[in-house]
Fold this protein.
Amino acid sequence: MSHHLVKRTTQGERMFHWINMLAFIVLVITGLGLYAKSFFGLTGLFGGVDNSRVIHHWAGIVFIVATVIIFLQWFKDISAPGEDSLGAVIKEYMDPSAKAPPAGKFNAGQKLAGWVAIILAVLMALTGLAMWFPFQLGRGLQQWMYFLHNLGFILFMGFIAIHAYLGTIGVPGTWRAMTKGTVTREWAKKNHPKWDAEEA
Amino acid sequence: MIVIDTTRCTACRGCQTACKQWNSLSAVPTECKGSYENPPDLSYNTYTKIRFNEVDRDGEIRWFFGQHRCMHCADAGCMKACPVPGAITREASGSVVINQQLCTGCKYCVFGCPFDVPRYDRSNAEGFGEDKAFKCTLCFDRQGMGMEPACTKTCPTDALYFTDKGKLGGITAAAKEKGLAVYDGGPLRTNVVFLLEDSATQYGLPAKPAIPTPTFLWRTIMKPVGVIAFVAGVVGLIAHYITIGPKEPDEEGGAAAPSPSPSPGEGGEY
Ligand code: HEM
Ligand code: SF4
Ligand code: SF4
């Protein structure tokens, strides 16, 4: 293959993204075990509900630390102004043959996703901490923490479904940025024309 | 079910003692807070407590005696909140009972209860292990042996008495005749019913008992909504993949079409 590859992610970025992903998966499974009685069987995967809960707590710590590190790594990129718009990005996903908006390293959708991820992660960490140590806030506020952790969970699952889809089969060629750290020139040209031009 | 006629209560606290005796609960050091009310609060080893409320009524002192204990709600917030199947059960007698063998100590029930009843203890020394929640069982074990609860059995003035549901109509009618208010938890339909001389709050009871709003939203609304929304979302993504299709890089120079089954592992060879 004659295509040259473009470096997309650093080793550090990939490492923390993997840590983050694995912690998230553990959090979802151990959390789901408590989400509804019909999912309670999932706690068996982690050696019963008592262990499952302890694992959830510590995976939560790993998760929030990794998320904050990723946020810092990409803070500049997700804050940078772009020439594309969210509307144009969505239009392209709805019609892949449409002319690509002039996206930089991250397109408008990815920048939004970055902010959504950090906000939801902080929400989960704060409400999760309150659920871990529940006698600090008073009854009224504490009751809302359960609701908010649950709401955040539902929003996060929606986010992660879209994120995982676009990172794998939805935009072929993206996943290798997570494994090899590179993408093809064609991928860059299609998805991030402005970034591609800058890198070239 | 239990009826508590507050007009007959002398606050002797016999019920507190009988409860501890039957359930083998240890004593709790008393605290002087300027009232006879003691021990200081419900706890893993105190399932019921008489509340003393002194009120100044036009220069005259009135003493309202209420009881803080599990109300054994037909619509129980603790059960709604609890994530562990079987950790809180409803017995045939109507009792709502925590099974400490199954309880994982998450404390959801502590905050789901409209009456602030379940108490959590990290390291009680009474044979249950760590991290368990505790509360009144309405003596479901005694009821199973054909006995009434320890508190009603011991009450010397019959302020607390055990009766069956069928008799409740007559009891509440008679109480209303005497000008007493009947407090049955409203929508919660508690199996412990108070007959009150004054407003519920004077007895430490919520004026409008209900499952806490956040608990209701969390357990009754969000739980199904979340599952439905997630399934709908995944179906939407699959539909996107099938109808609109993935966003492939543009083919250049009429090269062979990319692999029709893009694998998430490699991103294809373009
Ligand atoms: C970031 C740090 C986090 C902390 C400290 C945390 C902590 C907790 C705690 C303490 C509980 C209560 C149950 C127990 O005591 O084990 C809980 C429940 C739960 N957590 Fe987390 N969590 C975190 C993140 C997450 C994330 C990222 C997810 C999933 C996206 C999640 C999903 C859940 C779910 C589904 C429940 C069950 C309660 C419900 O029905 O809402 N948590 N979490
Ligand atoms: S009073 Fe509280 S602990 Fe008792 S059954 Fe009702 S919700 Fe549960
Ligand atoms: S503390 Fe125990 S009884 Fe209470 S909600 Fe959690 S598992 Fe259920």
